[in-house]
What does this fold into?
Amino acid sequence: MRQTTAYVALSADEPLTRQPIHRRDLRDTDVAIDVTFCGVCHSDLNEIHRSGNKPLVVGHEFVEVVSARGTGVTRFQIGDPVAVGNIVDSCGDCSMCLRGQENYCEQFPTLTYGGTDRIDGTTTQGAFADEYIADEKFVYPLPDRLDPAGVAPLMCAGATVWEPLVRWNAGPGTTVGIVGLGGLGHLGVKFAHALGAHVVLFTTSEQKAAGAISLGADEVVISADPAAMQKQANRFDLIIDTASAPHDLTPYIRALALDGTLCAVGALGSMDFDPIALLIGRKSIASAGSAGTRGTQAMLDFCNEHGITADVEVLPASDVSTALTRLERNDVRFRFVLDMKTP
It folds into this structure.
Protein backbone atom coordinates (compact mmCIF):
# COMPACT_ATOMS: atom_id res chain seq x y z
CA MET A 1 0.00 0.00 0.00
CA ARG A 2 1.06 3.57 -0.71
CA GLN A 3 0.61 6.35 1.83
CA THR A 4 -0.33 9.95 1.19
CA THR A 5 -1.91 12.80 3.15
CA ALA A 6 -5.46 14.03 2.70
CA TYR A 7 -8.17 16.23 4.20
CA VAL A 8 -10.52 13.69 5.75
CA ALA A 9 -14.16 14.03 6.84
CA LEU A 10 -14.51 11.98 10.03
CA SER A 11 -18.13 12.97 10.66
CA ALA A 12 -20.89 15.05 9.10
CA ASP A 13 -20.37 18.10 11.31
CA GLU A 14 -16.64 18.28 12.07
CA PRO A 15 -14.02 20.22 10.10
CA LEU A 16 -11.91 18.14 7.74
CA THR A 17 -8.72 16.81 9.31
CA ARG A 18 -5.39 16.54 7.50
CA GLN A 19 -4.02 13.05 8.11
CA PRO A 20 -2.37 10.08 6.38
CA ILE A 21 -4.44 7.75 4.20
CA HIS A 22 -3.57 4.70 2.13
CA ARG A 23 -3.72 4.36 -1.65
CA ARG A 24 -3.50 1.07 -3.53
CA ASP A 25 -0.26 -0.12 -5.06
CA LEU A 26 -0.01 0.61 -8.76
CA ARG A 27 -1.75 -1.85 -11.06
CA ASP A 28 -0.46 -2.41 -14.59
CA THR A 29 -2.51 0.40 -16.16
CA ASP A 30 -2.49 2.79 -13.18
CA VAL A 31 -0.82 6.16 -12.91
CA ALA A 32 0.09 7.85 -9.64
CA ILE A 33 -0.70 11.53 -9.71
CA ASP A 34 0.57 14.44 -7.61
CA VAL A 35 -2.55 16.57 -7.17
CA THR A 36 -1.99 20.27 -7.80
CA PHE A 37 -5.49 21.82 -7.98
CA CYS A 38 -8.84 20.33 -6.94
CA GLY A 39 -12.25 21.93 -7.42
CA VAL A 40 -14.85 22.13 -4.65
CA CYS A 41 -18.30 20.95 -5.76
CA HIS A 42 -21.76 21.06 -4.14
CA SER A 43 -21.77 17.27 -4.26
CA ASP A 44 -18.72 17.34 -1.96
CA LEU A 45 -20.81 19.21 0.59
CA ASN A 46 -23.68 16.76 0.20
CA GLU A 47 -21.44 13.75 0.76
CA ILE A 48 -19.76 15.25 3.80
CA HIS A 49 -23.06 16.19 5.43
CA ARG A 50 -25.25 13.26 4.39
CA SER A 51 -23.12 10.22 3.66
CA GLY A 52 -22.66 7.72 6.46
CA ASN A 53 -19.57 6.44 4.69
CA LYS A 54 -16.85 7.86 6.98
CA PRO A 55 -13.95 8.48 7.06
CA LEU A 56 -14.28 10.08 3.64
CA VAL A 57 -12.02 12.12 1.36
CA VAL A 58 -13.95 14.13 -1.24
CA GLY A 59 -12.76 15.94 -4.36
CA HIS A 60 -13.50 14.75 -7.90
CA GLU A 61 -12.41 17.43 -10.38
CA PHE A 62 -8.67 17.88 -10.33
CA VAL A 63 -5.44 18.39 -12.24
CA GLU A 64 -2.03 17.04 -11.47
CA VAL A 65 1.25 15.63 -12.72
CA VAL A 66 2.02 11.94 -13.30
CA SER A 67 4.60 10.86 -10.71
CA ALA A 68 4.67 7.08 -11.33
CA ARG A 69 3.11 4.60 -13.73
CA GLY A 70 2.29 0.92 -13.99
CA THR A 71 4.16 -1.39 -16.34
CA GLY A 72 1.27 -1.47 -18.83
CA VAL A 73 0.65 2.28 -19.12
CA THR A 74 0.90 3.48 -22.72
CA ARG A 75 -0.70 6.94 -22.75
CA PHE A 76 1.36 8.86 -20.20
CA GLN A 77 4.93 9.45 -19.12
CA ILE A 78 6.19 10.57 -15.71
CA GLY A 79 5.94 14.36 -15.58
CA ASP A 80 2.92 14.62 -17.89
CA PRO A 81 0.28 17.15 -16.73
CA VAL A 82 -3.14 15.45 -16.60
CA ALA A 83 -6.73 15.90 -15.41
CA VAL A 84 -9.27 13.56 -13.78
CA GLY A 85 -13.03 13.85 -13.27
CA ASN A 86 -15.68 12.15 -11.17
CA ILE A 87 -15.49 8.69 -12.78
CA VAL A 88 -12.41 6.46 -12.48
CA ASP A 89 -13.67 3.07 -13.70
CA SER A 90 -16.61 1.20 -15.23
CA CYS A 91 -17.46 -2.34 -16.28
CA GLY A 92 -16.16 -1.70 -19.80
CA ASP A 93 -18.46 -4.30 -21.36
CA CYS A 94 -22.05 -3.00 -21.24
CA SER A 95 -23.78 -1.15 -24.06
CA MET A 96 -23.11 2.22 -22.43
CA CYS A 97 -19.41 1.62 -21.86
CA LEU A 98 -18.93 0.32 -25.38
CA ARG A 99 -20.34 3.63 -26.68
CA GLY A 100 -17.95 5.69 -24.56
CA GLN A 101 -20.74 6.58 -22.10
CA GLU A 102 -19.10 5.12 -19.02
CA ASN A 103 -21.00 7.69 -16.94
CA TYR A 104 -24.12 5.57 -17.58
CA CYS A 105 -22.45 2.19 -17.01
CA GLU A 106 -25.19 -0.40 -16.51
CA GLN A 107 -23.28 -1.77 -13.51
CA PHE A 108 -22.78 1.81 -12.25
CA PRO A 109 -19.46 3.60 -12.71
CA THR A 110 -16.82 3.68 -10.01
CA LEU A 111 -16.85 7.20 -8.62
CA THR A 112 -13.69 9.09 -7.72
CA TYR A 113 -14.71 9.01 -4.08
CA GLY A 114 -17.33 7.06 -2.19
CA GLY A 115 -17.32 4.41 -4.91
CA THR A 116 -16.45 0.74 -4.76
CA ASP A 117 -13.20 -0.39 -6.37
CA ARG A 118 -14.09 -3.04 -8.94
CA ILE A 119 -11.06 -5.21 -8.09
CA ASP A 120 -10.47 -5.13 -4.36
CA GLY A 121 -13.86 -3.82 -3.13
CA THR A 122 -12.41 -0.94 -1.13
CA THR A 123 -14.08 2.48 -0.96
CA THR A 124 -12.51 5.05 -3.24
CA GLN A 125 -11.16 8.20 -1.61
CA GLY A 126 -11.02 11.52 -3.44
CA ALA A 127 -8.52 14.18 -4.39
CA PHE A 128 -8.48 16.52 -1.41
CA ALA A 129 -5.11 14.82 -1.09
CA ASP A 130 -1.48 14.97 -2.13
CA GLU A 131 -1.73 11.93 -4.42
CA TYR A 132 -4.36 10.02 -6.37
CA ILE A 133 -4.17 6.65 -8.17
CA ALA A 134 -6.27 6.06 -11.30
CA ASP A 135 -6.45 3.81 -14.33
CA GLU A 136 -5.04 5.62 -17.34
CA LYS A 137 -8.29 5.17 -19.30
CA PHE A 138 -9.98 7.74 -17.05
CA VAL A 139 -7.06 10.18 -17.03
CA TYR A 140 -6.89 12.96 -19.64
CA PRO A 141 -4.02 15.05 -20.99
CA LEU A 142 -4.16 18.55 -19.52
CA PRO A 143 -4.90 21.05 -22.33
CA ASP A 144 -1.68 22.90 -23.04
CA ARG A 145 -3.20 26.36 -23.59
CA LEU A 146 -5.28 26.55 -20.42
CA ASP A 147 -4.69 27.58 -16.80
CA PRO A 148 -4.61 24.35 -14.76
CA ALA A 149 -6.65 25.76 -11.86
CA GLY A 150 -9.40 26.79 -14.28
CA VAL A 151 -9.37 23.37 -15.92
CA ALA A 152 -10.12 21.46 -12.70
CA PRO A 153 -13.88 22.33 -12.59
CA LEU A 154 -14.24 21.44 -16.26
CA MET A 155 -13.82 17.80 -15.23
CA CYS A 156 -17.17 17.74 -13.42
CA ALA A 157 -19.12 20.98 -13.85
CA GLY A 158 -17.95 21.43 -17.42
CA ALA A 159 -18.67 17.87 -18.50
CA THR A 160 -22.13 18.05 -16.93
CA VAL A 161 -23.28 20.98 -19.09
CA TRP A 162 -21.24 20.06 -22.17
CA GLU A 163 -22.98 16.77 -22.82
CA PRO A 164 -26.58 18.10 -23.11
CA LEU A 165 -25.44 21.05 -25.23
CA VAL A 166 -23.89 18.66 -27.74
CA ARG A 167 -26.68 16.06 -27.50
CA TRP A 168 -29.38 18.64 -28.32
CA ASN A 169 -27.32 20.36 -31.03
CA ALA A 170 -26.74 23.79 -29.52
CA GLY A 171 -25.23 25.99 -32.20
CA PRO A 172 -25.95 28.65 -34.80
CA GLY A 173 -29.67 29.19 -35.30
CA THR A 174 -30.63 27.78 -31.89
CA THR A 175 -31.78 29.62 -28.78
CA VAL A 176 -30.42 28.17 -25.55
CA GLY A 177 -31.44 29.10 -22.02
CA ILE A 178 -29.25 28.54 -18.96
CA VAL A 179 -30.95 28.57 -15.57
CA GLY A 180 -28.61 29.77 -12.83
CA LEU A 181 -25.14 31.35 -12.94
CA GLY A 182 -23.18 29.18 -10.54
CA GLY A 183 -20.42 26.66 -11.08
CA LEU A 184 -22.36 24.80 -13.78
CA GLY A 185 -24.33 27.71 -15.19
CA HIS A 186 -21.42 30.02 -15.95
CA LEU A 187 -19.77 27.23 -17.95
CA GLY A 188 -23.07 26.55 -19.71
CA VAL A 189 -23.15 30.18 -20.83
CA LYS A 190 -19.53 30.06 -22.03
CA PHE A 191 -19.99 26.79 -23.92
CA ALA A 192 -23.30 27.73 -25.56
CA HIS A 193 -21.86 31.07 -26.67
CA ALA A 194 -18.75 29.43 -28.13
CA LEU A 195 -20.92 26.87 -29.93
CA GLY A 196 -22.68 29.75 -31.68
CA ALA A 197 -26.09 29.65 -30.01
CA HIS A 198 -28.14 32.65 -28.95
CA VAL A 199 -27.75 32.44 -25.16
CA VAL A 200 -30.22 33.62 -22.53
CA LEU A 201 -29.48 33.42 -18.81
CA PHE A 202 -32.36 32.94 -16.37
CA THR A 203 -31.51 34.22 -12.90
CA THR A 204 -33.32 35.40 -9.80
CA SER A 205 -30.67 38.10 -9.23
CA GLU A 206 -30.54 41.31 -11.26
CA GLN A 207 -27.00 41.79 -9.94
CA LYS A 208 -25.79 38.89 -12.08
CA ALA A 209 -26.89 40.44 -15.37
CA ALA A 210 -23.68 42.30 -16.19
CA GLY A 211 -21.54 39.28 -15.31
CA ALA A 212 -23.64 37.01 -17.49
CA ILE A 213 -23.27 39.33 -20.49
CA SER A 214 -19.50 39.41 -20.01
CA LEU A 215 -19.44 35.60 -20.08
CA GLY A 216 -21.29 35.45 -23.39
CA ALA A 217 -25.01 35.70 -22.64
CA ASP A 218 -26.98 37.67 -25.22
CA GLU A 219 -29.89 38.34 -22.86
CA VAL A 220 -30.71 38.03 -19.16
CA VAL A 221 -34.21 37.22 -17.90
CA ILE A 222 -35.14 37.70 -14.24
CA SER A 223 -36.96 34.46 -13.51
CA ALA A 224 -38.61 35.88 -10.37
CA ASP A 225 -40.56 38.32 -12.59
CA PRO A 226 -43.73 36.56 -13.86
CA ALA A 227 -44.26 39.10 -16.63
CA ALA A 228 -40.72 38.64 -17.90
CA MET A 229 -41.15 34.88 -17.89
CA GLN A 230 -44.44 35.06 -19.78
CA LYS A 231 -42.65 36.91 -22.58
CA GLN A 232 -40.34 33.90 -23.07
CA ALA A 233 -43.14 31.56 -24.17
CA ASN A 234 -42.31 29.21 -27.06
CA ARG A 235 -38.79 30.63 -27.66
CA PHE A 236 -36.18 28.07 -26.67
CA ASP A 237 -34.84 25.03 -28.44
CA LEU A 238 -33.01 23.94 -25.27
CA ILE A 239 -32.96 25.06 -21.67
CA ILE A 240 -30.34 23.66 -19.29
CA ASP A 241 -31.48 24.02 -15.69
CA THR A 242 -28.49 24.12 -13.34
CA ALA A 243 -30.32 25.41 -10.24
CA SER A 244 -29.59 23.18 -7.25
CA ALA A 245 -32.62 24.07 -5.11
CA PRO A 246 -36.04 22.46 -5.79
CA HIS A 247 -38.26 24.69 -7.92
CA ASP A 248 -41.23 24.63 -10.28
CA LEU A 249 -40.18 23.71 -13.82
CA THR A 250 -43.43 24.90 -15.43
CA PRO A 251 -42.29 28.43 -16.42
CA TYR A 252 -39.28 26.97 -18.22
CA ILE A 253 -41.35 24.31 -19.98
CA ARG A 254 -43.66 27.05 -21.25
CA ALA A 255 -40.61 28.89 -22.55
CA LEU A 256 -39.67 25.95 -24.81
CA ALA A 257 -40.41 26.07 -28.51
CA LEU A 258 -42.09 23.24 -30.40
CA ASP A 259 -40.15 20.01 -29.69
CA GLY A 260 -37.91 21.89 -27.26
CA THR A 261 -36.15 20.18 -24.36
CA LEU A 262 -35.64 21.17 -20.75
CA CYS A 263 -32.59 19.35 -19.39
CA ALA A 264 -32.33 19.41 -15.58
CA VAL A 265 -28.78 18.87 -14.33
CA GLY A 266 -28.88 20.79 -11.03
CA ALA A 267 -31.59 19.59 -8.64
CA LEU A 268 -32.12 15.90 -9.35
CA GLY A 269 -34.72 15.17 -6.68
CA SER A 270 -38.47 15.26 -7.24
CA MET A 271 -39.59 17.74 -9.89
CA ASP A 272 -42.79 19.81 -9.93
CA PHE A 273 -44.37 20.83 -13.22
CA ASP A 274 -47.73 21.21 -14.95
CA PRO A 275 -48.17 18.25 -17.38
CA ILE A 276 -50.31 20.42 -19.66
CA ALA A 277 -47.35 22.75 -20.20
CA LEU A 278 -45.36 19.72 -21.34
CA LEU A 279 -48.12 18.52 -23.65
CA ILE A 280 -48.62 21.79 -25.50
CA GLY A 281 -45.84 21.91 -28.07
CA ARG A 282 -44.62 18.30 -27.82
CA LYS A 283 -42.00 19.36 -25.30
CA SER A 284 -39.61 17.14 -23.35
CA ILE A 285 -37.97 16.99 -19.94
CA ALA A 286 -34.60 15.27 -19.80
CA SER A 287 -31.55 15.03 -17.61
CA ALA A 288 -27.87 14.18 -17.94
CA GLY A 289 -25.03 13.30 -15.63
CA SER A 290 -21.37 14.09 -16.22
CA ALA A 291 -19.87 12.63 -19.43
CA GLY A 292 -18.09 9.52 -20.64
CA THR A 293 -14.49 9.33 -21.81
CA ARG A 294 -15.27 10.39 -25.38
CA GLY A 295 -17.40 13.34 -24.36
CA THR A 296 -14.94 14.51 -21.72
CA GLN A 297 -12.06 14.47 -24.19
CA ALA A 298 -14.17 16.32 -26.77
CA MET A 299 -15.01 18.96 -24.17
CA LEU A 300 -11.34 19.45 -23.25
CA ASP A 301 -10.37 19.74 -26.91
CA PHE A 302 -13.13 22.32 -27.46
CA CYS A 303 -12.05 24.30 -24.39
CA ASN A 304 -8.43 24.28 -25.53
CA GLU A 305 -9.44 25.51 -28.99
CA HIS A 306 -11.65 28.29 -27.63
CA GLY A 307 -9.66 29.24 -24.52
CA ILE A 308 -12.43 28.31 -22.10
CA THR A 309 -11.82 27.62 -18.41
CA ALA A 310 -13.94 27.97 -15.29
CA ASP A 311 -13.86 31.27 -13.42
CA VAL A 312 -12.33 30.24 -10.11
CA GLU A 313 -11.28 31.51 -6.73
CA VAL A 314 -8.15 29.65 -5.67
CA LEU A 315 -7.58 29.02 -1.97
CA PRO A 316 -4.75 27.21 -0.22
CA ALA A 317 -5.71 23.66 0.73
CA SER A 318 -5.51 24.59 4.40
CA ASP A 319 -8.54 26.85 3.82
CA VAL A 320 -10.74 23.93 2.80
CA SER A 321 -13.15 24.57 5.68
CA THR A 322 -13.52 28.19 4.56
CA ALA A 323 -14.27 27.05 1.02
CA LEU A 324 -16.91 24.57 2.15
CA THR A 325 -18.56 27.08 4.50
CA ARG A 326 -18.70 29.80 1.86
CA LEU A 327 -19.91 27.37 -0.78
CA GLU A 328 -22.76 26.34 1.50
CA ARG A 329 -24.00 29.92 1.52
CA ASN A 330 -23.24 30.40 -2.22
CA ASP A 331 -20.51 32.94 -1.51
CA VAL A 332 -18.32 32.11 -4.51
CA ARG A 333 -17.78 33.32 -8.06
CA PHE A 334 -18.07 30.76 -9.62
CA ARG A 335 -16.06 27.81 -8.35
CA PHE A 336 -13.60 27.29 -5.52
CA VAL A 337 -10.39 25.48 -6.35
CA LEU A 338 -7.95 24.27 -3.71
CA ASP A 339 -4.24 24.71 -4.30
CA MET A 340 -3.09 21.34 -2.96
CA LYS A 341 0.57 22.39 -3.09
CA THR A 342 -0.08 25.20 -0.59
CA PRO A 343 -1.26 23.13 2.39
In short: The CA atoms of residues 142 and 331 lie 28 Å apart. Residues 2-155+292-339 form a domain with the Quinone Oxidoreductase; Chain A, domain 1 fold (CATH 3.90.180.10). The mean pLDDT is 95.
